[in-house]
Amino acid sequence: xxxxxxxxxxxxxxxxxxxxxxxxxxxxxxxxxxxxxxxxxxxxxxxxxxxxxxxxxxxxxxxxxxxxxxxxxxxxxxxxxxxxxxxxxxxxxxxxxxxxxxxxxxxxxxxxxxxxxxxxxxxxxxxxxxxxxxxxxxxxxxxxxxxxxxxxxxxxxxxxxxxxxxxxxxxxxxxxxxxxxxxxxxxxxxxxxxxxxxxxxxxxxxxxxxxxxxxxxxxxxxxxxxxxxxxxxxxxxxxxxxxxxxxxxxxxxxxxxxxxxxxxxxxxxxxxxxxxxxxxxxxxxxxxxxxxxxxxxxxxxxxxxxxxxxxxxxxxxxxxxxxxxxxxxxxxxxxxxxxxxxxxxxxxxxxxxxxxxxxxxxxxxxxxxxxxxxxxxxxxxxxxxxxxxxxxxxxxxxxxxxxxxxxxxxxxxxxxxxxxxxxxxxxxxxxxxxxxxxxxxxxxxxxxxxxxxxxxxxxxxxxxxxxxxxxxxxxxxxxxxxxxxxxxxxxxxxxxxxxxxxxxxxxxxxxxxxxxxxxxxxxxxxxxxxxxxxxxxxxxxxxxxxxxxxxxxxxxxxxxxxxxxxxxxxxxxxxxxxxxxxxxxxxxxxxxxxxxxxxxxxxxxxxxxxxxxxxxxxxxxxxxxxxxxxxxxxxxxxxxxxxxxxxxxxxxxxxxxxxxxxxxxxxxxxxx
Amino acid sequence: xxxxxxxxxxxxxxxxxxxxxxxxxxxxxxxxxxxxxxxxxxxxxxxxxxxxxxxxxxxxxxxxxxxxxxxxxxxxxxxxxxxxxxxxxxxxxxxxxxxxx
Amino acid sequence: xxxxxxxxxxxxxxxxxxxxxxxxxxxxxxxxxxxxxxxxxxxxxxxxxxxxxxxxxxxxxxxxxxxxxxxxxxxxxxxxxxxxxxxxxxxxxxxxxxxxxxxxxxxxxxxxxxxxxxxxxxxxxxxxxxxxxxxxxxxxxxxxxxxxxxxxxxxxxxxxxxxxxxxxxxxx
Amino acid sequence: xxxxxxxxxxxxxxxxxxxxxxxxxxxxxxxxxxxxxxxxxxxxxxxxxxxxxxxxxxxxxxxxxxxxxxxxxxxxxxxxxxxxxxxxxxxxxxxxxxxxxxxxxxxxxxxxxxxxxxxxxxxxxxxxxxxxxxxxxxxxxxxxxxxxxxxxxxxxxxxxxxxxxxxxxxxxxxxxxxxxxxxxxxxxxxxxxxxxxxxxxxxxxxxxxxxxxxxxxxxxxxxxxxxxxxxxxxxxxxxxxxxxxxxxxxxxxxxxxxxxxxxxxxxxxxxxxxxxxxxxxxxxxxxxxxxxxxxxxxxxxxxxxxxxxxxxxxxxxxxxxxxxxxxxxxxxxxxxxxxxxxxxxxxxxxxxxxxxxxxxxxxxxxxxxxxxxxxxxxxxxxxxxxxxxxxxxxxxxxxxxxxxxxxxxxxxxxxxxxxxxxxxxxxxxxxxxxxxxxxxxxxxxxxxxxxxxxxxxxxxxxxxxxxxxxxxxxxxxxxxxxxxxxxxxxxxxxxxxxxxxxxxxxxxxxxxxxxxxxx
Lengths: 672, 101, 172, 519
Known about the structure:
The complex is a heterotetramer. Chain B is 77% helix and 0% strand. Chain B has three helices and no strands. Chain D has one domain. Chain D has helices at residues 5-23, 29-53, 86-104, 114-133, 137-146, 148-158, 175-204, 211-219, 225-242, 251-258, 261-286, 288-314, 319-339, 343-374, 385-388, 390-403, 410-423, 431-459, 466-469, 478-496, 499-517, and strands at residues 63-71, 76-82, 163-164, 173-174. In chain D, helix 3 packs parallel to helix 14 (343-374), helix 6 (148-158) runs antiparallel to helix 7 (175-204) and helix 12 runs antiparallel to helix 13. Chains in contact: A-B, A-C, A-D, B-C. Chains B and C meet through helix 1, helix 2 and helix 3 of B and helix 1, helix 2, helix 3, helix 4 and helix 5 of C.
């Protein structure tokens, strides 16, 4: 089943990799199981004691343990293998599904498995008593399953399938409370925005597949690292198109607009979506195709870098002005995704994936923490929170850990990954981007501190009775905060660089900078900016006055408006793209259809019948039939008078008859 | 007995029947008048039979047939009248003008 | 003029008078009774003409069966049993009289022109002979008439049946 | 030559049963329905047996057919047979017919005349099956036309009775009347030209109507020049009306909107395929040179159809009309695939046809049932369907997802592979035109997602409107579920395992392409 090129490819890489044995061969279980579970939950979930949640939970726990086993074997022995199933041939192309087991996919399995498990546990409690509880778990399981389809994909085809399945699951989950129109609209927005990006991905896949004559990723990577001429001509185009796809899922500017709206879904969904699934897909795609980018499409990487940097700064700024706690986190996610993409664009493969790895844990932590808060105070708005650190100590402490990790302070996870990105930028000599990224780190620290201060410090401004959440919700928080602390230790320059080895399955072909020790400039500037951000926020929101008027102090009207309106992007989209298409074009086409085409058709019909009429009246009727008609008209006129004699009375008829008989008899008798 | 009075009487009976058909409103009465006409024909047949001293008795046999057919006719005619009466609630033939154009 | 001639003229007069009464009486039942009278007179006339079998048939079939049928018809159609002025079409009367008189006139003219006063010979007729002729020479029409009667029987039943189930089927 | 008995049974059994049904009194509805169902099931079973007998290793050859002299004076034969291209469509046709009959058991539209409806469905099935197996142009034409009549009556008798105004006509007109006449005249117009083309081929092609013989002649270059151009043009007209391609599509929305549920299901699922099948079976292989010359035009028209159909959908308020316009878009993908003249593109068209048959058939089932329940198709009045009719709503949502080309479901393959084919058309075709068409098609997928999701939002989601709350609405009953669930399952199966279709079509398409276009 293993492709010959792939074996060669491995031989050029790290020959000590094993094929993974039975464990790798049965990896398909973790991909298929969620779908089976989803079917079971749909049909039988209602009859189970936990309404189907236990099936979902069992599935993700299985995924978690299986991926942990895989990760253990990979970390000790190394695995690289891929499996294919032919599902049809079309022309000379084989359509194949399958699964790939290598460092990158194992890392993703583990992230998905871990985060999903914790989120699912959390959700069993969080969603208690909510509408469509069972269906929620169906979708959630499908969501995790779709992500696994995506990351396990050895062919671009399966990647595309997983990609879109993730999109549709997000549609189901974001629109979970579809009774309200905003929610279903948000779901639609997510789906359509992703679909637009998917067009890029789809065309990119088509371009690559047709130039390499295969849909297998490993084969494409092999060709792109071995100077095949066909792929070289389309590499730049293909690279950009794939990145457009990644921009949709990974919410890069200007296609990030769906992500903040996606907060309409329940909080566990946001956590899962923003941490482990969906948004990481784009970064995963860049990582998976990284040898291609580096080998053939290095110009495309410049575009990737540019958009990454724009996103990390732009989204970070918007996060500062949000009042909705979940939206702060959402924009923070966009900003962090910007970091990852920046890393990829600058050629720092490991750094990008490392940030994905750490971010998955602390962002899941933050979202679940936010969910816990929202569950307690029944509002999303920070202006109605405050002072919750006393009522919700566990949530508070874990949230603080997440915040610090995100702000990038040692020794928590965010510090190491962010530092590696900065170091890489510094090393590559992208000075401007380096400065912007450092600025981004400052902004990150600022808005996170602002959020913490508004939520947990000061006095409670709402009018409910907040309370600490159930154990089922706090335990995942605690576990995740553990991960948020230690996840970064997987790759400490100069100390332990296991993570680099995990994800570097094709060592020789990923030419990247691996800091042997800490890059002092980067570390210093990152650390300073983080601390500065925290300090400034603390000064503005806590030291000088209370939290509520903190915003007023930093409000510079025009910029604030710009940010509050999210750079008028939504406005622009609606005004210049969606409305024209949905209303103007569509109405035009519809009226064209009924007023031009149909009118033409009907006109032809009417004209034909008129022409027929003319031929009929003038030629047929006027000429030939005229003579005949005259006689018939005569008959008709007379008949119309004569018919009056007809009364329908039998006796009268008989009388007329007899009169006739008499007259005729008389004539015969007298005249003849 | 000469033949002339018989034939004239039959003709008179025939004319009376015609009058009845033309004048009567009730469908049953019209049927009665028809019987008169048929009877006049019977008289003619039997009279001619007697006059011609027919060996094969054609006249008598025909009158028997006529009587038979007349019986059938009365049966059907009354059934039709009954039908019409049932549908129209009247036996007045003036109201049956279905044969109008 | 023999006695039998006087008797037969009397009979003919009776016949015509009762016939006129049939079409002029304003009572339905009376009309039927007068028809019986007319037919009975005819039957006597037939006997005078030595057509005994026909006379008997006339009495049996007409007076015995047909008139009863008529009386039933009269009753079923709920024709008023007493005198009924509505029985005639008044506006037709004059024209009808003219027509029937014209017909009578024409007939009489033709008859008087055609026939002299030939005397009718009334020999006795053998009913046996009549039966033989009927079943030999006229056997085919005889059988045909039986079918006609059968058809009339079925037709009469079908038409006059009160229950409408069968008819509903046919209407579709 | 084999006996061809199986195929003959598949074609004529429904017709014989229809005649048999005429003999059953109208009142015996149950007997009529059971006989119809039995005959359709039997036909389906026989078609399955035929599929089992089919030699998939030689899917490119015409198999299991026969050739019997029919009208010897014009050398027209009763020549039938199937290959990998027609087999999936034949199975689809027999299968959908069974489901349509099951659905009609309890859901006859007014005036409920089971006898008439059932016999029309059976006659329709004969026409459809016959078209897919006919290998003689005259036979093909007869079956092609046979389909018209039952559909005309279905629309005209059981159709929508509302009176509406139509632009270009002075007086308001009953929808069903307008639609049925439009449908009939449009298709007849196309097929009249088509017959002309057939006759042209007959006289130039050694006086034969046999399609295999004509293909041999065509691929050896017997038909060239103006003659070929004209013949292709008239064949194009005939088939394009049926597909329907822009701008010959305007009969479709009216016909679908007016037709009763079963009618629109059969219309969408099978009848539209007759046109695209005609292209693949007749127009391309017999006139390859002309196909190459016309391909860019077809591609452009398809691309316009995709965008146009999607945009028109966005403006619809009538549920069935929306789905009808979506058919225009989806068949655009099919035609885009065909126009690429590559094995990928034509394979895409084949799976696209089957998938469209299943998915749009299901959509029409569901929307027809909803229209029956709510007594309106106006999406402004619907809403909260998911709450009111959960089963119907779930299937509607699923089908809409399938229809927008969600990967993993059947609709995806047709769209994606058609785009794949259009990116690299047959060498010698104008790359720019095809790539632009491909981009247009890709944009079309976004618009498709847009209108379908919008439709879902308006119909399925949200709180139910006031007017429905106190009404007693019936969710899908067992007959409906029995008719729908198989289609749902098929959608998933083909989506996950497209070999079900490609396994049959691929060899046949490769053979066709290599014969006609030398590669």
